[in-house]
Amino acid sequence: MTTKTQKTTIVLAAMLVLSVGVTMLPNVLAAAGTVDSYYWHSNTDMCYSESSLDNLDFEDATGNGNDVITEMEKSRSMWNVEMNGVTINGHGLFSCFFNHIDVQSEAQDGAGGDFAYEFSYFSGSTMSQSEIRFDSDDGWGGNSNRCTLGDIDVEWVMNHEMGHGVGIRHHVHNPASSIMHDTCQGTLSALQTVDDTTIDINYP
Amino acid sequence: MMNKKLSIIPIVIASIAIGSFAMYNESQFIEGEVSILMYKHTLAELTEKAEYAIVGTVEKITPIRVDMPKESDEDRVYTDILINVKEDLFGKYQNKQISVRILGGETETMRLDSHSSPEFKVGGDVFVFVSGISDGYTYNGHHFVVGQVQGTYDLTNGIAKNQHTSDSIQASDLISQVKQVRGLQ
Q1: pLDDT per residue over B45-68, tens digit each?
Q2: Which residues of A123-152 are buried (b: 16+ CB within 10 A; e: fewer)?
Q3: What is the reported pTM?
Q4: Smallest CA–CA distance from A153 into chain B, residue
């Protein structure tokens, strides 16, 4: 028969294990790749928020962001071709495990501030998660080949942000030579020579 | 004998729990980087868009980790820059200090690198285009820098160097141009 002290010690140890487990559980689940299923839509490995795309204020008569999704899928196809089907951590490019694409309001800078953001997070030297955000407060347009207020080229920005999503950083030199320049260059609709070179270096 | 064996069990359980927790916390330093796609601003556009044009000296730099509201979003790091105000070129800001928040920074548990966010150092003299107080989630109650690196100049020995282009201009010429755009000169 155990003593009262031993019983108390066992109870305290069990409580400690339980509290640690409860603390760690959300992060364990996140690491396992679960997503907010009510928010993210996964379609053939593309991970985006349908509900938030409506907020991009893009020309779309149906109001469900279909035009934006179309641009997204075009960009993904382009990058997949350029990168010869490479996977990241065993998952396809822009899958829900790895990339999240949505639209949020970054209202602090108003219209004509920062158009879009890409957040990359790392596990060691390997990118483990990418979040792409479009700012709903800026005036977006179709394939305008422009970056003027109220008519920002969605195709260009999509190509640019997805470039970050595969680990390519800003190209800060000649703005006309790369779609990865840090300021909007709507006239470039495809990858340029310097972009191809960067991909070849990053993904030999 | 049985009591001795039973007395070891809670010690083992506790040791495993504490060790796991310690290892988990040790591995939780998060590293990330953010790329910001900016609208390309001219000096005139920055001048017209900004609420204030602050000339001052950096007093304090404070990073802060922010828990984002959506569960699937990773946390972010912002940094609050406290500037001792020498002058607002627009003549509107009257306080002696102003705090601007920038995206990126490093805390004890997370680092978020932002190459388009302006850089500041304590004691550095700066000229920076600043917004009014934001009411959004991440900048709530803070000012931010208009144009990111485009709207920030380092002042050294009368020379203003833009943090985006690295172009230098006489600080007096920069101030004059800004005031002209606003019709203050």
Answers
A1: 999 999 999 999 999 999 999 998
A2: eeeebbbbbbbbbbbbebbeebebbeeeeb
A3: 0.79
A4: B39
